[in-house]
Amino acid sequence: MRTFLVASVLAIAVVAMMAGTTSAQLGAGIKLSQTLEAFVAYHAADNLMLEAGLPLGGLGGFFLVLAIDANAKLFFDPIEVAQVPLRPYLGAGITIASVFNVLVLSPHALAGVEYHLQDTSFSFFGELGAGVTLNPIGIFLGATLGARYDF
């Protein structure tokens, strides 16, 4: 468990350090799906964001699952839906979790839209994801709502 915690902290630190001295490229937020997740985001380019997060929650509410989630999102030009500008994106990532001292890997793909609250640093998003778990083998579908503040 100690190795897992160290790896999790290092992964988040790497995302934070990638911003260098320019803090405008970093963001932090929360996501809500089956668990609550705190994450940091690095805007690698105008259309590319890297995220690392720590899901906080349990499986079935009975025990704590230690996990780290990492995603890359590719953004497209904004579209307008009912006069609301939304920025669609596609992404991929992996979740690494420790459940009863068993390492579980879960690669996934996601699609979503983001709304940037004008004249602020806040963004809100919704996404749908699909993936597989390895060890044990399984397939999952999920939906996520979230908010991010860009520094």
Detail the topology: elements first, then pairings.
Blueprint: H1 2-17, E1 26-32, E2 36-45, E3 48-56, E4 66-75, E5 79-81, E6 84-99, E7 102-116, E8 122-133, E9 138-150
Antiparallel strand pairs: 1-2, 1-9, 2-3, 3-4, 4-6, 5-6, 6-7, 7-8, 8-9
CATH hierarchy: architecture: Beta Barrel
Secondary-structure element string: HEEEEEEEEE
The overall average pLDDT, rounded, is 84
Distance between the termini: 32 Å
Keywords: Membrane, Transmembrane, Transmembrane helix
Protein name: Outer membrane protein beta-barrel domain-containing protein
State the main characteristics.
mainly beta, 151 residues, eight-stranded antiparallel beta barrel, globular
Written account of the structure:
The protein is mainly β and 151 residues long. It has one domain: Beta Barrel (Porin), CATH 2.40.160.20. It contains 1 helix and 9 strands, in the order αβββββββββ. An 8-stranded antiparallel beta barrel has the order 1-2-3-4-6-7-8-9. Strand 2 and strand 3 form a beta hairpin. The radius of gyration is 16 Å and the shape is globular. About 3% of the residues have low confidence.
